[in-house]
């Protein structure tokens, strides 16, 4: 018997809804389901004037099913996308894409009309917007010359412009020293870019002039190279009145290298006159050598972010030293280094290898593992309360101090030593796919719920003494596995209660996952139930 169901009055909003067909007779029942997939032509909902986030960005929202193909025209000429100018999609749902045309350091030659054309097999839509990044040089009115044009007339031409940018940058830096050791790094976009000063008088709104709703969370190189929350100025993280503490270079004495960070070496150092009742303390300093302009901007933004993140399970950030090259960030020293290395060196393999030597390596107990997990969860509860999405939670980004004190210590920067943990998806984008839920892999959607998924993977890492998740699979196989709904197996030493917690973190639907507060309190009670013998690790 062939029958059909007619549906009328549907709209694209019905996409994703499920139709269930159930058949029943006296002998039994059967049912089948169908996911609605309504096809419709593209519409460009918004195409806004450019705004300055980390880079310049022309924001847009486009709908259509199937996903429309996008083309940009600048002054009626098809725009060839490249590293400096390219379309970035920040958020993608079944029907809708939010993104922007990102322009890195545009100049007046990029001013003009931008047309976005969206096409799919059912139709097309287009919208235009005017962009004015920088006023063109005005030779007939010397009084109104932008600074870089004055330099150009002096005969220094292009290199002069570059020099000027650097000089302006240092000019801005000199502001840091005004109030002795502490001063303001403004989060205002005007002060963040010398080019923006040059562009004074143009019509382009800076993101600080727009309402918070207009601030697009830039997802330029997600997530290990940049965390877009560094560039957000509407959230609680980057307050315009952030005071970044400045430390004098002569107060920092380097002792030895601790490791290699994403942007430079990390050293153990002694820092004088940092805390009131101690002449000097041990600190970890992260260096940034020969920073490019955008490297410096990232550095300052990260410093502001770190200044505002303060919690007992987030590594303490003491301040910056920017007197000369390299730029330095000063953190509390965590004696046992990163948690992944720590777990490996207190696992069965390390204990086996140390056998015969006079080393006193001790395998971690279950209660110590719970104690570690509980502290990371506490740090994550705090980050979630600050509406901060970490995006790269993993044991390699946590640090271990004395008495098994664990803190989250890294906020979205990549590392060479762990490069196999990241998956390069083209250009600069590197993703920690083994820690990511399906929606982050498929749509680059990162939320507090996706952090909860990663926390589940961190629990798995802890209970396997630092194994790499899906170590037996290649990156492509991992992507296939996760998107198909497979989850990591229960580690040998993991109690059922903890594996249930992991499964609660790995629910496919983000809203079905455990809440970070619940996870923390469950871990807390499990840890309480099995006391930790901290002195074993000394
Ligand atoms: P980046 O964030 O630039 O990638 P990392 O935080 O990864 O740098 O640091 C590299 C290495 O330096 C870590 O694996 C760790 O061993 C060491 N390290 C970093 N910060 C500290 C710290 N506060 N205390 C002790 N060791 C640290």
UniProtKB/TrEMBL annotation:
Enzyme Commission designation: 2.7.10.1
Binding-site positions, ATP: 258-266, 286, 332-338, 396
Gene3D superfamilies: Immunoglobulins, Phosphorylase Kinase, domain 1, Transferase(Phosphotransferase) domain 1
Protein's UniProt keywords contain DNA-binding: no
Binding residues annotated for Mg(2+), in chain numbering: 397, 410
SUPFAM superfamilies: Immunoglobulin, Protein kinase-like (PK-like)
Site, as annotated: Interaction with SHC1: 230
Active-site residues from the entry: 392
Example GO biological process: nervous system development
GO cellular component terms given for this protein: axon; endosome membrane; plasma membrane; receptor complex; synapse
Bias (Polar residues) ranges: 199-209
Transmembrane segments: 145-168
Positions bearing the site annotation: Interaction with PLCG1: 533
Membrane topology designation: Single-pass type I membrane protein
Record's keyword terms, sorted: ATP-binding, Developmental protein, Differentiation, Disulfide bond, Glycoprotein, Kinase, Leucine-rich repeat, Magnesium, Membrane, Metal-binding, Neurogenesis, Nucleotide-binding, Phosphoprotein, Receptor, Repeat, Signal, Transferase, Transmembrane, Transmembrane helix, Tyrosine-protein kinase
Annotated InterPro entries: Ig-like_dom_sf, Ig-like_fold, Ig_I-set, Kinase-like_dom_sf, NTRK, Prot_kinase_dom, Protein_kinase_ATP_BS, RTK
GO molecular function: ATP binding; brain-derived neurotrophic factor binding; brain-derived neurotrophic factor receptor activity; metal ion binding
Segments for region (Disordered): 189-209
PROSITE patterns, alphabetized: PROTEIN_KINASE_ATP (PS00107), PROTEIN_KINASE_DOM (PS50011), PROTEIN_KINASE_TYR (PS00109), RECEPTOR_TYR_KIN_II (PS00239)
Domain Protein kinase: 252-523
Compartment annotation: Endosome membrane
UniProt record similarity statement: Belongs to the protein kinase superfamily. Tyr protein kinase family. Insulin receptor subfamily.
Protein known as: Tyrosine-protein kinase receptor
């Amino acid at each position: 018997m062939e029958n059909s169901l007619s549906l009328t009055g549907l709209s694209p909003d019905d996409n994703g809804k499920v139709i269930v067909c159930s058949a029943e007779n006296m002998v039994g029942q059967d049912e089948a389901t169908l996911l609605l997939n309504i096809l419709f032509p593209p519409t460009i909902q918004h195409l806004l004037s450019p705004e300055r986030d980390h880079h310049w960005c022309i924001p847009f929202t486009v709908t259509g099913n199937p996903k429309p193909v996008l083309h940009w025209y600048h002054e009626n000429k098809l725009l060839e996308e490249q590293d400096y100018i390219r379309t970035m999609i920040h958020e993608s749902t079944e029907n809708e894409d939010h993104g922007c045309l990102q322009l890195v350091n545009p100049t007046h030659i990029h001013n003009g009309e931008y047309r976005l054309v969206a096409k799919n097999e059912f139709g097309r839509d287009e919208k235009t917007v005017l962009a004015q990044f920088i006023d063109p040089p005005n030779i007939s009115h010397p009084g109104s010359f932008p600074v870089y044009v004055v330099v150009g007339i002096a005969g220094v031409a292009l290199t002069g412009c570059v020099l000027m940018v650097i000089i302006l940058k240092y000019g801005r830096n000199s502001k840091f020293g005004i109030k002795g050791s502490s001063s303001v790094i403004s989060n205002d976009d005007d002060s963040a870019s010398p080019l923006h000063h040059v562009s004074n008088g143009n019509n382009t709104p800076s993101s600080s002039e727009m309402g918070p709703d207009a601030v697009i969370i830039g997802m330029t190189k997600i997530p290990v190279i940049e965390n877009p929350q560094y560039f957000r100025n509407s959230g609680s993280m980057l307050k315009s009145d952030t005071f970044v503490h400045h430390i004098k270079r002569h107060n920092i004495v380097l002792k030895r290298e601790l490791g290699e960070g994403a942007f430079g070496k990390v050293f153990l150092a002694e820092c004088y006159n940092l805390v009131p009742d101690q002449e000097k303390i041990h600190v970890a300093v992260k260096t940034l050598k020969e920073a490019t302009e955008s490297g410096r901007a990232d550095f300052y933004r990260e410093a502001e972010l770190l200044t505002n993140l303060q919690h007992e399970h987030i590594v303490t950030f003491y301040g910056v030293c920017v007197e000369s090259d390299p730029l330095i960030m000063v953190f509390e020293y965590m004696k046992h280094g990163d948690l992944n290395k720590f777990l490996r060196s207190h696992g069965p393999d390390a204990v086996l290898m140390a056998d015969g030597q006079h080393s006193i390596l001790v395998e971690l107990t279950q209660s110590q593992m719970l104690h570690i997990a509980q502290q990371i969860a506490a740090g994550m509860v705090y980050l979630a309360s600050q509406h901060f999405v970490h995006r790269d939670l993993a044991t390699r980004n946590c640090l271990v101090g004395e008495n098994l004190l664990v803190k989250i210590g890294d906020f979205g920067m990549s590392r060479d030593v762990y490069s196999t943990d990241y998956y390069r998806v083209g250009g600069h984008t590197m993703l920690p796919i083994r820690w990511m839920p399906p929606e982050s892999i498929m749509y680059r959607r990162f939320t507090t719920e996706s952090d909860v998924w990663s926390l589940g993977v961190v629990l798995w890492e802890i209970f396997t003494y630092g194994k790499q998740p899906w170590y037996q699979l290649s990156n492509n196989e991992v992507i296939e596995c996760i998107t198909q709904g497979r989850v990591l197996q229960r580690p040998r030493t993991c109690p059922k209660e903890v594996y249930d917690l992991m499964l609660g973190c790995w629910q496919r639907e983000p809203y079905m996952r455990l809440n970070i507060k619940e996870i923390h309190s469950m871990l807390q009670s499990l840890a309480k139930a099995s006391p930790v013998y901290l002195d074993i690790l000394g």
